[in-house]
């Protein structure tokens, strides 16, 4: 085979990989670690939501924080194990989890009903920041990732363009998402100070 014949397939593969990378980011999404990337166990039941979803609920996991993927993957997997084994839920309760390193971990993902806020699961997306944020905020990378994730959801038609955003403590008896993080999200676009759901 000529050198040209060897280069053409290589050029096509490189071009295809570049196109895929651009296509994956065309919705402005942050880096999302898919379920296989953190060794998620299979869900025992999946219930789908009607999209676009109208509400977003922000949580914290009340675990240690993490930056590096190996540590974050272990934390996310341990949360899933607790939710499935101890809580007897079908899967991890959150739709997405965000690490201080800036990666977003796909929980149950888009248009699936979670188990994060009793009474509101079927009509909201639950996003949890990995860590405990009573005194300190998540990292700037994590906050940027959350902003990109929300815009990504709107761009993909998963979230309504006029979605309303809440801290979990507004909807149930919990300290989540922590005082510092709650004060932060009160300044975000779409925050609703008086939920009527």
From TrEMBL:
<dbReference type="InterPro" id="IPR017331">
    <property type="entry name" value="Peptidoglycan_recognition"/>
</dbReference>
<keyword id="KW-0391">Immunity</keyword>
<feature type="domain" description="N-acetylmuramoyl-L-alanine amidase">
    <location>
        <begin position="41"/>
        <end position="178"/>
    </location>
</feature>
<protein>
    <recommendedName>
        <fullName>Peptidoglycan-recognition protein</fullName>
    </recommendedName>
</protein>
<dbReference type="InterPro" id="IPR036505">
    <property type="entry name" value="Amidase/PGRP_sf"/>
</dbReference>
<keyword id="KW-1015">Disulfide bond</keyword>
<dbReference type="Pfam" id="PF01510">
    <property type="entry name" value="Amidase_2"/>
</dbReference>
<keyword id="KW-0732">Signal</keyword>
<feature type="domain" description="Peptidoglycan recognition protein family">
    <location>
        <begin position="30"/>
        <end position="172"/>
    </location>
</feature>
<keyword id="KW-0399">Innate immunity</keyword>
<comment type="similarity">
    <text>Belongs to the N-acetylmuramoyl-L-alanine amidase 2 family.</text>
</comment>
<dbReference type="InterPro" id="IPR015510">
    <property type="entry name" value="PGRP"/>
</dbReference>
<dbReference type="InterPro" id="IPR006619">
    <property type="entry name" value="PGRP_domain_met/bac"/>
</dbReference>
<dbReference type="InterPro" id="IPR002502">
    <property type="entry name" value="Amidase_domain"/>
</dbReference>
<feature type="signal peptide">
    <location>
        <begin position="1"/>
        <end position="23"/>
    </location>
</feature>
